[in-house]
Design brief:
about 50 residues; mainly alpha
């Protein structure tokens, strides 16, 4: 199953939010937000690659 473009755009928006929270968010959650952003970025990379 391939991802629809609107799903990819929503996940890219979430990735931006997690990246921002990893640097300016709650200090206790910064590491969690950074790891979430890294994981989502990897998933998006594979999803976009699969569409090509």
């Amino acid at each position: 199953m391939t991802m629809r473009q609107d799903h990819i755009e929503l996940l890219e928006d979430k990735l931006r939010l997690w990246r921002e929270a990893a640097t300016s968010g709650n200090m206790e959650l910064r590491d969690y937000n950074r790891r979430c952003a890294e994981a989502l970025e990897e998933c998006l990379h594979h999803a976009i690659e699969g569409r090509s």
